[in-house]
Amino acid sequence: MKEAIIFAGPKVIIQDVDFPALPSPNYLIIKVIVSGSNPKDWAIAERGDTIVDYRDGHNAVVAGLQNAIGTNEKLKYAFDAVSDKGSFQNIMQVMDHLEGRITVVLARKKYEGIPDTVDKTFTQVGRVHSSTYPGIKGEKAPVGPLGDQEFGLLMYKFFERGLAKDWFSGHPFEVVDGGLRGIEGALRNLKAGKASAVKYVFRIEETENGRKNHL
């Protein structure tokens, strides 16, 4: 099987490693056919109601949010899909601290800067997959007969219909030649800002033979 080791630079070394032995029948190994990368940025100017480019810095983000909301208006609802690197602090500068509601996605954070008067909840993908998901300390329990698993079921059917009717599509992507050996060039493109709002996809079976490494 193939192993890609990424070093600073970026520099990528591809190695052949032995197939691991399973410790018991209760374990399984997933064969990866393709691997993908997240884009360096998500800016697509022609999509959405308002695009605020985070690359311009925190002050510009806050100004852009306020401009989108309105000069004398306050934000009531926010879904912070980043929840890091100043994202929720920026949101708090334009949010209504008495009636505002925000949902965040990273569990092991203190979220200093979000006042207790703001209703903070967590959005976790694990809740859709399991009714025994442990949850997060201090999180408010959902109220109502339907939970996250039911919500997930409906949303996936909704996505399925969108794909079938062609009004919903996946994220733009580009297949990189050479399988895993294309990772280094793709990382250099990301670092140089040559790829915007596009995912790179690597077909592992296209990887040439690497050097052997017995673990």
From TrEMBL:
<dbReference type="GO" id="GO:0016651">
    <property type="term" value="F:oxidoreductase activity, acting on NAD(P)H"/>
</dbReference>
<keyword id="KW-0560">Oxidoreductase</keyword>
<protein>
    <recommendedName>
        <fullName>Alcohol dehydrogenase-like C-terminal domain-containing protein</fullName>
    </recommendedName>
</protein>
<dbReference type="InterPro" id="IPR047122">
    <property type="entry name" value="Trans-enoyl_RdTase-like"/>
</dbReference>
